[in-house]
Structure formats: C-alpha cells, structure tokens
Amino acid sequence: MRTATNRCKRSLLALFLGLTACSSPDRPAGAPGADSGDVRIRYTARRVLLPEVPERGRILDRHDSVLVATRPQFLLKLPRLLDTLKLGELLGWDSTTVRQRIKDAVPAYRWGAAYPVQLSLTRAEVERVRQDSSQTVPKLTLTERPRRTYTTAAGAPLLGYMYAEAQPFLGQARRTQRGRFYRLRNGGVESYYNGLLSGHRGYQHPLVDAQGRQHGSWAKDTLFQQGQDLHLTIDAKLQTYAEKLLGNRRGYLVALDPKTGEILAYVSAPVYPASTITAPDKAGVRTELLESQDLPLLNRPAMLANPPGSVFKLVNAAVALQLEAITPASAFPCDQSLVSCVHGHRPAKNLTDGLKYSCNPYFYRVMQSLIDCVPDTLAGDTVAARHATLAQWRRYVRSFGFDAVLGVDLPREAPGFLPTPAYYDKARRTRAWTYRSIYSLSLGQGEINLTGLQMANLAAIIANRGWYYPPHLVRGIGAGGPLPRFRVKHRTLVDSVHFEALIPGMQAVMRSGTAASSSLADVGISVAGKTGTVQNDEGDDHAAFIGFAPADKPKIAVAVYLENAGFGAEAAAPCAVLVMEKYLRGSVAPKRKRWEKRIRREAGSE
Asked: Is residue 590 part of a domain?
C-alpha cells in the first residue's frame, strides 16, 4: 500500500510500541469506500515476536572439545527435616559426602530453617530417585531445567558466566564483600561475547487495519539468528595442567602463541572449579571464595598490575640499544655501592653477561646512560634534560603495550602504570629530582606496574623481535575468525636488530645463568628466558619469569608470577618450562617428574 500521504497522529515511539493509529485519505483501488474521499482508514503498527527461540552457542577449545554448553540440569530440593543417612543410601553417597554437599550448598544450613537446599544430580542419581517407589526420603522434589554446563573444572576466570544464571552469586557478593565485589566482577567470554552467543529472535513489523489485515510493514523485519559457537584459543589439556601447577598459590600463568597472540593457557590462582559461580548447590563454596584473604575471584592476569622486577631489564636494554645509549659490547662493573647485587658473578663484559647474571649495577648504569644523556639543545639545563629523556624513555616503553589496555576479549582489563616526569615532580615535590631518586626504574621496581597479560605479551614481542598481535581468547566466532582488531599487527619503536641482541643473554640465563636449573636442553629444546625477584616490603619477595621456546623459532611464550614465592629462578621458572615442555612435546621428561610432583604438592593440588 502507498503510505506517502499517511499522517501519524502519535509519535514514532508510540508507533514502535504498537499503539499508534494512522489515517489516510487515499485507499487502494477497489477497496470499500474507495469512491468516498472523506473516508479514512486507521492502521496499527505492530511488533510481532517470532516463535522460534535461538539456542545459546557453545564454547569450545582450540581442538574443538566442548567446554561449555546448554544442557538439562537436574536439581533435588530437600525438605526442611531430613534423614541424611537415608538420603545417602538413596543416592549412593556416604555420610561424609552428604554432609559436605549440604555444607557446600548452604553453609549456615540448619534443620528446619527456611533455607531451601537444592543439590545438582547426575543422570544416574536421578534414575535412583525416580525408581524409589517406596519414597525412602519423603518430600523430595526433583526438577529439570536447561542451564549452562561446564564439562571441565579448569578455566573459571576466562570462561566466566552468564549474568542471568549468576544472580545468586552477585547477591552474595554484594552482601559479603560490598565494594570489593565491583573490583572482582568478571563474566569472562560468556559475558564479553554474550550477544553473539545468545543470538536473537526474529521480529516482524506489520501495519494492520481494524480488521487485522496487513497493509505492508512499518519497519524492516528482524531476522532470526541462532547463537554462535565460540572457538577459543585455549588448549584445554594445557590449561588443566597449568592450573594444577599453580593450585592454591597466589599468582598467574599466561601462555601465548607469539605468532598469533592466541592465549594457550590463562591461569589465575588460587584456582576454583569453573561451575562454582553459577551452580545452585555451591552457595557455601562461593561464600568461602568471597571471604578468602587470597582473593581467588580476582582475575589476576588482566586486573592485577605488579612491579615486574628484573624481567624489565630486557625492556630497558632494548630501549637503550635503540637510543644508542649502550651497545651489545658495553661493559659495566658490578659496583655494589650503587645498588646491591645478590648474584655472585664475574664482571659483566657485555650485555649478554649482564642478562645472564641479572647484574643490578650493570642495569643501573644502562638506565643512567639513558636518563643522564643530555640532548644538545638542553646542554645547559640538567632539570629540563632529565624531564626530556625520561619522557623519551617512556614513549619508547609505551610502544610495548604498557600503560594501556591491550584490548583482550574479557570484560575488564587494567592498564598498568609507567611514571611520567610530572608524576615525579609531584611525588618528589620538586622538579630538580635526579636519577638517583628514580633508579628503581632500572630494576623494574618502584612505580612501574605491569599486568600478567602485558608480561606475557613482552615475551611474545621479544620472541617476534619487535612486534605482536593483541592477546585474545577467541580464535573463531561461528564459522568465521576472531574479531578484526586481533588481526592488526602492532610494532614497537625498537628495531628488530636490538631485540636480536637480547636473545644470547636470555639463552645464557637458561644454560648457565640464574635459571640454569630449568634448562630443557636434555630434550633438545632451547629456551630463552629472564628471571625476576620482586622486592616486597610486606612479606616474602615475589617470583617472576618470562620466556619462550624454541629460542630460534618460538611457538610458545610464557609469563609466570607467584606472590611471596621468593626467587624467580626457583619458583616461577620451573612452572614456565614445564608448561613449555608439555605444550611442545605433549609430556614431561622423567627427570622433571620430581619437579612436577614437588610443585603440585606445594600448590596443594596433589
């Protein structure tokens, strides 16, 4: 029908809501009353929801193993007065299991209290309840409903949860942690890609007359769209293995494919089962997680920024090489009057030795050569010169993706921090600060803070000799690829030749330097790495490590950070190389099985 002369009596908003009546002096030829120009027709705009409901997409790992899918879930509602012995006999559980399952569901459960307890059952347990014709335990209520089901316990922070199914958790979080809840909230890829996973129902927009007859459409129809599957970058077996290495310790492990930016493993520890946040019978467990001083619900790799320690010496060396403040042959004495050096070693005759021994005085001098290098235009103004050289240093360092979010496909990500000249003006309460008051930058301490994603991305940048793709968790959406921004290559301001100059020192670290005990040379894998021990005024030092393997053609880059674990060479490096070996070879050599056993025992995952 022609609608060019239609006059709407109400607003477009009312039309959208289907409440508008429109009139027209023109009528289709042959229609009743067509001869009478004074007869008007009233039309109503409707929005009709199509009956088909889209099925939410699945989440699969990089090898197409299903990790999350919508499946039937069976819940057993318990009566207020319950014989736990009979319930155990009915379900095939011992008395300890019954008590633990009820405690996990509602920790403050009291018999007769108005707290309905629901337990999730397997299909086999459901059949036992249905076949119990004698009603061993009376007043049991069995219900079935579709819910998101996790096929693995691993990957809780990255898989996340549907907010619709996490309302009990969100309510608990508000009550038990108040403001802290907003810092911990993380819906993972379930939340980040919610619109693609859920799809959308179709709508029609007919324009109808008083008799219900359609006269065209007032808007374009919306097509039905099935929920899209997400194909993750995660290797589910590697993820499970890495989580067992970290277990109940505080820290993170991030492993990347440096050539693509795909995240192979993403561990935030302490770890907890992925289904805990949405499971109806885990309210007690969630309360323990929320109240834990270890903050297991904090998504550490993305949200927690820490000083990187000696790992950052790699960045300072690369920038110093680029700005010609040093050369690969530069030698500096181990002058402990400048700063202490915990490693007993020979004098560093070049950059390779400096990295091998992680010599603090050496890198003190490297950074000093950058900051105190006075530009010709500012030769007579040392204050302005230091401001200019620090600003220049920061510009080069920011090109590594620091002091900014990398754009990972998770709901929240911290940017980390790099100090500016203005920051030091305010912090030192003077513009005339000297290098001596900021030398902690040379050791990756003080004001520098990097996230776990940035640490892993640093390893990938060096592995690639100066470039990276943004780290991401989804490699395919439906039949397509990742989001377009994850295919954009980023380059640092440092030339590739200067990254190449770092590799001999990083290999020396693993052969005969600070991490010699973590070498994989016995299985023919050359690892390039750098350890870090981060000073901590509030307790034991933190352990850090970044590296990649094989050194010549990298396939995996790893960053590990363990809070209060001591030396990076002793705590962080072994975890990283075990993950490298597991990924590259599929198994761990027998000689390192004792490492594996010790680490898992210390992590409480054995």
From this structure: no
